[in-house]
UniProtKB/TrEMBL annotation:
Source organism of the structure: Hoeflea poritis
Phylogenetic placement of the source organism: Bacteria, Pseudomonadati, Pseudomonadota, Alphaproteobacteria, Hyphomicrobiales
Domain (ATP-grasp) ranges: 124-312
Family annotation (PROSITE patterns): ATP_GRASP (PS50975), CPSASE_2 (PS00867)
Keyword NADP listed: no
Keyword terms of this UniProt record: ATP-binding, Nucleotide-binding
Signal peptide: none
UniProt name for this protein: ATP-grasp domain-containing protein
Keyword rRNA-binding: no
Annotated SUPFAM superfamilies: Glutathione synthetase ATP-binding domain-like (SSF56059)
């Protein structure tokens, strides 16, 4: 099966917010863009820069996914580049590996490096040994282990899944302030979690440092502050923020960490910064394309180009004083917190007011793009009860392989590649 195009094709794995700016960049390079169907945002099928959607077995089913991928690449020799966009696909290639055709390049950091960065305990130990400040932590895998960790660390603590792509009772992280909180959440061990990272809670706001590096030397860098997330407690996904000039101390921490890891590729380092106490603590490093990848691209960092082209020259910084938003994510967070009773009337009014204000004043939205408007519009519709579900790629009940229909068919010219895999 051929696309009918002689152009080189790229396969983007992860139907995720960054898929949109990546697709636009590859189109500018006159490449044929194919996007995978699985992902948390379901936006690629509406992008004018995406020519085909590959409907594949879930990546969690590694055997069938690899079989389907191998067959697709054999059937479509014009695919010369595979980009794991979402973390689940980075993990797949880092752990599973794949015997792919020689002409196919996987655009990601070295698999062993990816595994080290995604292993929270290993990364925090490496950072601590390098002199980068890290809040005390324990990795636990049972209720008794949780109690021992809490005795050692003392409240408050933050508990998060060992794998950042997982959720803990629907949250990226939980904050425990007392034994009552512990007993409420962890009277029994959550069966879906292999292990949990328990870390002393430190104050401050999250800082994201987007970067590109070659052999441990940073060559591109952008510092952004997350002003708000989609959760009242500050965990969750960023919905408002701004970029700033690099802070020297954090830049030095970033350089030291990247150098220690011998990092080549692009990524995002996260810190918690408490300005009142003058404290900075490393949270994690994501060895992949960041969820808000549109921010460094808008600020001129060119991380997508680096992902493809590699080696770079002298250190350059992205543009500061850029305000960004994610209106749909903000509305979804507002709705979620309101429905679970976390917002009083005054808090709800204040939150909604900030959504409106931020939408008006921001320089760029994570999903809304006038050059490619449909994905952002669908993302907004998803927030509306009773409307969003019809914008999804629908599957037959019990069938994880084939698309049943695309409703509404917002892109009449888009092609669907069906992949059966092994049975």
């Amino acid at each position: 099966m051929r696309s009918g195009s002689d152009r080189m094709a790229v396969l983007l794995l992860g139907n995720y917010r960054p898929t949109l700016p990546l697709s636009e960049m590859f189109c500018r390079r006159d490449m044929h863009v194919i996007a995978g169907s699985e992902g948390c945002d379901h936006c690629a099928e509406y992008s004018r820069f995406v020519s085909e959607i590959w409907d594949h077995p879930k990546v969690a089913d590694a055997k069938h996914f690899l079989s389907a991928l191998t067959k697709l690449l054999a059937d479509r020799p014009e695919i010369g580049l595979v980009v794991p966009v979402e973390e689940a696909f980075v993990r797949f290639f880092a752990r599973q590996g794949a015997d792919l055709p020689e002409h196919v390049r996987i655009a990601m950091v070295d698999p062993q490096l990816a595994q080290t960065c995604l292993d929270k305990v290993a990364l925090l130990n490496i950072a601590g040994d390098a002199g980068i400040p890290v809040a005390p932590f324990r990795l636990v895998d049972c209720v008794d282990g949780m109690r021992e960790a809490l005795d050692a660390l003392s409240y408050p603590v933050v508990v998060r899944p060992e794998q950042s792509s997982n959720r803990l009772f629907g949250h990226k992280a939980l904050t425990l302030h007392s034994d009552e909180d512990r007993d409420h959440w962890f009277a029994t061990w959550p069966a879906e979690q292999r292990a949990l990272l328990v870390q002393r809670k430190v104050g401050g706001i999250r800082h994201n440092c987007y970067f590109a590096a070659q052999s441990g030397d940073i060559s591109r860098y952008l510092h952004a502050i997350i002003a708000r997330t989609d959760r009242m407690d500050g965990s969750g996904l960023a919905v408002e923020g701004r970029t700033i000039a690099p802070e020297p101390a954090i830049l030095e921490h970033s350089k030291k960490l990247v150098s220690t890891l011998g990092y080549t590729g692009i990524g995002c380092i996260q810190y918690l910064v408490d300005e009142e106490r003058g404290e900075t603590h490393l949270l994690e490093i994501n060895p992949r394309i960041a969820g808000n990848h549109v921010i460094p691209e808008y600020c001129g960092l060119g991380l997508a180009e680096f992902l493809v082209d590699g080696a770079d020259g002298d250190l350059r910084f992205g543009r500061p004083d850029v305000h960004y938003s994610w209106v749909a994510g903000d509305l979804e967070g507002f709705k979620s917190e309101l429905l679970r009773g976390a917002l009083g009337p005054g808090q709800a009014l204040k939150w909604f007011g900030r959504i409106v204000r931020n939408a008006v004043r921001s320089d760029v939205d994570v999903m809304l793009n006038t050059r490619d408007p449909l994905p952002g519009i669908v993302n907004l519709l998803d927030v509306i009860p009773g409307v969003g579900h019809i914008t999804r790629l629908r599957r037959k009940e019990g069938d994880v392989t084939y698309l049943e229909r695309l409703v509404p068919k917002a892109r009449p010219g888009i092609s669907i590649i069906k992949a059966a895999g092994e049975t």
